[in-house]
C-alpha cells in the first residue's frame, strides 16, 4: 500500500511523499481513492485495475477516442461493486456523453466553416453568411467570428462597391441588404450611393400576356388583365337582361392589373392540392372541378397561399376574383352580351342550346361538363368564361350594391350578406344565363355539379 501511494504521489506532486513531511497523505487524491476502494472491499489487484482503467478512460477522452473510452467504461462497469448503478460509473458516463456531444458539435461547426469558405470563394455571399452563422451557433471558436467580421464582410463590401460602379441597381441593393447584417454602418452609408443609380422601370405586361406557374406539380397558365375602366352590367337595350338594379350598368375602374387563370380550375389541380376529387363528372383530368361550394373554394385558396406561395410572382397572392375582376376579364374590351358577339346556341360555349340567345336556331345540349379549352378563348386568351360551370366570385350578393358611388373603383362587394355570387352560366343553363353581365347567387355552403371557379393572382 505504501509503495502504491508513493508512486501515485510522484504523479501528483513530482516528489515522493516521504520527502514532504508537512503534507498529509490523507490530503492527496490517490490516498482518498485508495481509501474509498478499500472501504468497498476490493482486492488490491482489482483496485489497481480500476485505477489503470480510469487513467486510460481519461487519456481516450483527451484524444477524442470515444469508442475506446466507451470500452473502458464498459470494463469499469464490471469492476465497480455496484456496476452501472455506481455513482462513479454514472459520473464517467455523463462526462463521456458531454464530451462526445461537444466533439460532434465542433465537427459540425467545422463542416459549416469549410462550406462558408467555399461559398465565399464562389462569391455566394448569402450562403456563406448562413453557414458561418450556423457554425457560430454550434460552437464558440474565435476563428468563426474572425471569418465573419473579416473575410466575409470585406468580400460583401467589395461586391457592393463593384455593383455600384457597374451601375447595377438591383444587385447593389440586394448585396447591401446582406452587408447590413455584417456592417450596418457601411451599409447605411451605401444607401445614398445606390439611390443615385437609375432604378429599372417596371415592365407592364400587355393584356393577355401569359404567365405559367407550377402548383403542386401541375402547370397552370394565367393571363394578364391590365388596370383599366369599363362598363360593368348591361345596357337597358340588352335582350333578356334582369330588370331593376341587378344588372345596372355603371362605370368601374380597376386600379391594379391582375393575373387570371386561363381556364376554370381543373380536377387535376384540385386533386393535386387537396388530395381528393369531389366532381360528379369524371374521366378526364382536364374537366373543370365541380361539386365545390364557395367555402370549399376558399379553403383551396387558403391552402395555396399557405403551401404554394413560392410559385407566386413577388408581392402576389392567390384569390378568387371579385365580380368586377371577373366581368372585366370576361369582356376583354367587348361590350356585347358575349365576348364573341350577341348570339349563342351551344356552338361557342357549353350551355343548354335548346334555349338559344339572339337566334331561334337551337343548338347542342351536352348535359355535362366538357374539358377546359374545348371552345375558343376570348381576346385575352381566357377559355370558358361563358358556360361549362358557374364560377364562384369572392363577393357577397346585394342587388343594390352597384348603385353606390363607393362601388366605382376596385369594388369588392358588400361587407356581409347571406349569398355569394356566380358568374358565367354553365352546361345546365340557357344561353341567356351565360351573358357577360348575368349573375346568379347561392349560399356559400351549397355544392352542385355545375359549381366551379377559377383563380386570380392579386397584389
How are the secondary structure elements laid out?
Elements: H1 2-13, H2 29-39, H3 44-62, H4 66-79, H5 87-121, H6 125-138, H7 142-166, H8 169-179, H9 184-195, E1 210-215, E2 218-225, E3 228-232, E4 250-254, E5 258-261, H10 267-274, H11 294-307, E6 317-319, H12 323-331, E7 390-396, E8 420-423, E9 439-442, E10 451-452, E11 456-458
Parallel strand pairs: 7-10
Antiparallel strand pairs: 1-2, 2-5, 3-4, 5-11, 6-11, 7-8, 8-9
Helix pairs in contact: 1-2, 3-4, 4-5, 5-6, 6-7, 7-8, 8-9
3D structure, described in words:
This protein is an alpha+beta fold and 459 residues long. The protein is built from 12 helices and 11 strands. It has helices spanning 2-13, 29-39, 44-62, 66-79, 87-121, 125-138, 142-166, 169-179, 184-195, 267-274, 294-307, 323-331; strands at residues 210-215, 218-225, 228-232, 250-254, 258-261, 317-319, 390-396, 420-423, 439-442, 451-452, 456-458. The strands form 3 sheets. Strands 1-2-5-11-6 form a 5-stranded antiparallel sheet. Strand 1 (210-215) and strand 2 (218-225) form a beta hairpin. It is elongated, with a radius of gyration of 39 Å. The termini are far apart.
Amino acid at each position: 500500500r505504501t509503495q502504491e501511494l508513493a508512486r501515485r504521489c510522484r504523479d501528483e506532486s513530482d516528489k515522493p511523499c516521504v520527502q514532504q513531511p508537512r503534507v498529509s497523505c490523507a490530503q492527496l487524491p490517490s490516498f482518498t481513492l485508495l481509501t474509498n476502494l478499500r472501504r468497498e472491499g476490493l482486492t488490491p489487484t482489482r483496485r489497481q485495475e480500476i485505477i489503470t482503467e480510469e487513467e486510460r478512460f481519461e487519456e481516450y477522452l483527451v484524444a477524442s477516442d470515444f469508442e475506446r473510452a466507451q470500452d473502458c467504461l464498459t470494463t469499469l462497469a464490471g469492476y465497480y461493486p455496484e456496476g452501472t448503478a455506481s455513482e462513479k460509473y454514472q459520473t464517467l458516463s455523463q462526462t463521456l456523453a458531454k464530451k462526445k456531444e461537444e466533439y460532434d458539435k465542433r465537427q459540425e461547426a467545422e463542416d459549416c466553416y469549410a462550406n462558408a469558405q467555399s461559398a465565399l470563394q464562389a462569391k455566394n455571399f448569402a450562403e456563406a453568411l448562413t453557414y458561418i452563422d450556423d457554425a457560430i451557433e454550434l460552437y464558440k471558436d474565435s476563428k468563426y467570428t474572425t471569418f465573419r467580421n473579416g473575410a466575409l464582410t470585406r468580400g460583401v463590401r467589395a461586391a457592393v462597391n463593384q455593383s455600384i460602379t457597374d451601375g447595377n441597381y438591383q444587385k447593389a441593393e440586394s448585396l447591401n441588404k446582406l452587408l447590413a447584417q455584417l456592417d450596418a454602418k457601411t451599409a447605411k452609408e451605401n444607401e445614398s450611393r445606390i439611390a443615385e443609380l437609375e432604378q429599372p422601370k417596371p415592365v407592364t405586361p400587355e393584356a393577355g400576356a401569359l404567365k405559367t406557374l407550377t402548383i403542386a406539380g401541375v402547370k397552370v397558365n394565367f393571363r394578364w388583365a391590365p388596370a383599366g375602366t369599363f362598363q360593368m352590367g348591361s345596357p337597358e337595350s340588352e335582350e333578356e337582361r334582369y330588370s331593376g338594379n341587378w344588372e345596372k350598368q355603371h362605370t368601374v375602374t380597376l386600379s391594379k392589373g391582375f393575373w387570371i387563370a386561363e381556364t376554370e380550375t381543373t380536377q387535376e389541380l384540385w386533386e393535386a392540392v387537396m388530395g381528393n376529387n369531389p366532381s360528379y363528372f369524371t374521366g378526364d383530368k382536364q374537366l373543370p372541378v365541380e361539386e365545390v361550394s364557395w367555402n370549399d373554394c376558399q379553403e383551396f385558396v387558403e391552402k395555396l397561399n399557405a403551401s404554394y406561395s413560392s410559385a407566386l410572382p413577388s408581392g402576389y397572392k392567390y384569390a378568387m376574383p371579385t365580380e368586377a375582376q371577373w366581368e372585366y376579364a370576361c369582356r376583354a374590351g367587348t361590350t356585347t352580351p358575349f365576348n364573341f358577339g350577341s348570339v349563342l346556341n351551344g356552338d361557342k360555349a357549353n350551355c343548354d342550346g335548346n334555349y338559344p340567345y339572339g337566334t331561334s336556331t337551337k343548338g347542342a345540349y351536352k348535359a355535362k361538363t366538357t374539358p377546359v379549352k374545348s371552345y375558343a378563348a376570348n381576346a385575352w386568351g381566357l377559355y370558358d368564361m361563358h358556360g361549362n360551370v358557374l364560377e364562384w366570385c369572392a363577393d357577397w350578393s346585394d342587388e343594390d350594391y352597384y348603385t353606390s358611388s363607393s362601388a366605382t373603383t376596385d369594388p369588392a362587394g358588400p361587407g356581409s350578406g347571406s349569398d355569394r355570387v356566380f358568374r358565367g352560366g354553365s352546361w345546365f343553363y340557357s344561353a341567356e344565363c351565360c351573358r357577360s353581365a348575368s349573375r346568379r347567387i347561392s349560399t356559400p355552403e351549397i355544392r352542385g355539379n355545375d359549381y366551379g371557379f377559377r383563380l386570380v393572382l392579386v397584389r
